[in-house]
Amino acid sequence: MKIVVLDGYTENPGDLSWAGLEALGEVAVYDRTSYVDDPIIAERIGDAEVVITNKTPITKATIDKCPNMKLIAFLATGYNAADYNYAKEKGILVANVPTYGTASVGQYAIALLLEICHHIGHHSETVHAGKWQNHIDWCYWDYPLIELDGKTAGIIGFGRIGQTTGKIAKALGMNVIAYDLYPNDFGKAIGEYVDLDTLLAKSDVIFLHCNLTADNEGMINKDSIAKMKDGAILINNSRGQLINETDVAEALKSGKLAAAGLDVVYTEPIKADNPLLGAPNCIITPHMSWGAKEARQRIMDITVDNVKAYIDGNPINIVNK
Questions:
Q1: pLDDT tens, 164-187?
Q2: Model pTM?
Q3: Fold of the domain built from segment(s) 2-100+293-311
Q4: Is 287 a catalytic residue?
Q5: Domain locations in the chain?
Q6: 298 is a catalytic site residue
Q7: Residue 160 a catalytic site member
């Protein structure tokens, strides 16, 4: 069986092994192919039966050019890069990795918040640059320091990752409230479920941990921001399309939002004209909260399981049944 990995570098920049896949068939691994539809995608797939991708798109045109393709396996939870409905029409299964980064992504959300509260990276840089050794006082801080104990964390999207973030926030002494379409007992043990307007009004820190849907695209905009506390902090390491970037940038400039910690933006890689790049008190990192080696190893292991299950005739984690 031929297996093609179209964009393997971000999953495995060299610290993992493709051996699990190689045990299942003839494997060709490309570090990068294309992040937009391009004839090279079909060329590299050729007559492969299993195609593994992360962000390289599998469009209708590509599917039509690759009649031997039977499984598209994503090295991710999201699978929008494939035309999964057309794949279903053609009898092609699409599999994803439903759970792998719960601990890493929740941890990273809190890391963004703590960086906003203390600006540890900035202050370390100033020490190395000589500011402390030449300072008149025995200590200094260039930004206001924020204590989280007693403040309210509002989490939009209270699934596995949201609940992980909630547990850590609670351990820091924060009050946790959450908005989710499907409340459950696990969530109730961590925080209080409230409606969205209540969450916006009461939260000192708002975390976005929801899936992107047609209904919530741009949900953080000038109208929802107006309902927030003055000086609220926004954290988003879910999906960049959840926020209106122009509205968030304006809120940061006006001080309505005290700060934002973002690991995702609307278009990735970020564009030079993104309004958030010129906004004050805005930390932006390059969509890396999923990238801990432990999390990537889970992606690798589950992807191997997905391919093996397909070969065995009992496919798992199929999203287009």
A1: 999 999 999 999 999 999 999 999
A2: 0.94
A3: Rossmann fold (3.40.50)
A4: yes
A5: 2-100+293-311, 102-284
A6: no
A7: no
